[in-house]
């Protein structure tokens, strides 16, 4: 592939080189977390993690494992930088982002380290574009301290039915209330909008419910405006896991299959709306 | 009130609500003994629609005994319950409509596939009855056709077109766009279609005349009729009296009543008739609810400027008293008797 012949001498200078035959395998998943301009990139030998945060109350992470990349070389244990995500996506789609079969944009993403721009080599149909995007010092992402041992309730649903519910949610409601319980209503999404309240109930024995592990009845409210961006991730996913911990923090994990059928993950963490007390 | 709609009827109910939303912003709900009435009216009172679903339309139909229950709610809220017809068709097994009197909520519960349940608790306002007074059976001209005929006719007019004029002779119907007198005819585009009587299932003309009415409000009915395949009946009389379009089957009846433009001679005729109408009873002035007013004829004031649409005559129901009735007050002189609730 043409890009690999480029600047082989430079290869030594880069602390991170990641290549994809199909840039969409990166851009599609990044679109699922683009609700703010800036994203924190954190690369380890395991792969790439991209984090976007909103007002310290919402955090979205996209994980692209090293196996997804055709080439993935990292010279340090951890490489981190911050870039403008909107600009990055524009570059990844620089050839117009058409979805013509058989035609894809190849990507080689290179980073020399602290202070250097993120360099993207993009190729489609023999045409090569080089983009250099300025990087910033990465901010420390918020640690939501969400650990599996503290998880009180967990369900795994097929995205199909949740997509339907989210597309119908009453947007005049300021909050989305999630109730999880070992007894009725099991798993409930509620809104309180201008015309009244609405509830979406999923029984624990629904065939859409792949896993149901609820130990305690919990009702938590989350700002609708914070959760709205997660619908992009939901749209891409085939399965979603919903977990709440003892503090009422919410973790949504989406299983996304890319164009080549490989699995990536997107997760959202959200803190509960302060005014409401738990059950 | 406790009603259950199952299977394909859920979609029919949803489509009726969507077509009512093309008329007005509020949905008037009135469970009656002869069925559930859903009605809507536009702000200028020149278009009214009513769907009456017979008890047999439901798999369960229980209405409150004693005092009649009537309410109105924002139609957008109800539309939100039935947002996607395609999804409804695929996933909804039944719809349960229940009145929660303590909390003043009308609850719509959709039981869907995979055990999913969607519950919408909608707030409502009490309202007076909303009924237009018209007697379609007395109208001189009656037509019936498959909805396709009207849909195919209407498609030739741009969506922005406000009014159409329908003219009939013994064996033909012309449909053309209505152009304001002020408009320079040489600059306007005129479209006219001619339909022969044999394209209709029924074509009966007693008086050859023309009526002009608002097309936009009609389109809602056309969508409903086309999807259910029910024939549309059209009734009209002289200019100034409303045109009525109906769809009927054994378990439902839908009526769209649209005011027509009256020409000057008719305007005078209506004015004289109005003189006989008694003023609204004093009680109504204390009530802020617009619906309890007797909405009078001849809205050259209300409604689109420069139009002389005759508004529909609405029966008013007084606040609960010894005699609770949903019929217009007897003893008032009305232009036509109310036979709206005639359901076979």
UniProtKB/TrEMBL annotation, chain A:
InterPro entries listed in its UniProt record: Cell_cycle_checkpoint_Rad1, DNA_clamp_sf, Rad1_Rec1_Rad17
Gene Ontology BP annotations: DNA damage checkpoint signaling; DNA repair
Subcellular location(s) per record: Nucleus
GO CC list: checkpoint clamp complex
Protein keywords: DNA damage, DNA repair, Nucleus
Similarity remark: Belongs to the rad1 family.
Function: Component of the 9-1-1 cell-cycle checkpoint response complex that plays a major role in DNA repair. The 9-1-1 complex is recruited to DNA lesion upon damage by the RAD17-replication factor C (RFC) clamp loader complex. Acts then as a sliding clamp platform on DNA for several proteins involved in long-patch base excision repair (LP-BER).
Entry protein name: Cell cycle checkpoint protein RAD1
Native organism: Dissostichus eleginoides
Automatic annotation (TrEMBL), chain B:
Catalytic activity: Exonucleolytic cleavage in the 3'- to 5'-direction to yield nucleoside 5'-phosphates
Chain spans, region Disordered: 324-344
This protein's record includes keyword DNA damage: yes
Keywords: DNA damage, Exonuclease, Hydrolase, Nuclease, Nucleus, Phosphoprotein
Location relative to the cell: Nucleus
GO biological process: cellular response to ionizing radiation; DNA repair; DNA replication checkpoint signaling; mitotic intra-S DNA damage checkpoint signaling
Domain of life: Eukaryota
EC numbers on record: 3.1.11.2
Major enzyme class: hydrolase
Cellular component terms per the entry's GO annotation: checkpoint clamp complex
Main location: nucleus
Pfam families: Rad9
Molecular-function annotations in GO: double-stranded DNA 3'-5' DNA exonuclease activity
Function per UniProt: Component of the 9-1-1 cell-cycle checkpoint response complex that plays a major role in DNA repair. The 9-1-1 complex is recruited to DNA lesion upon damage by the RAD17-replication factor C (RFC) clamp loader complex. Acts then as a sliding clamp platform on DNA for several proteins involved in long-patch base excision repair (LP-BER).
Family from the record: Belongs to the rad9 family.
Record-given protein name: Cell cycle checkpoint control protein RAD9A
Source organism per UniProt: Dissostichus eleginoides
Lineage: Eukaryota, Metazoa, Chordata, Craniata, Vertebrata
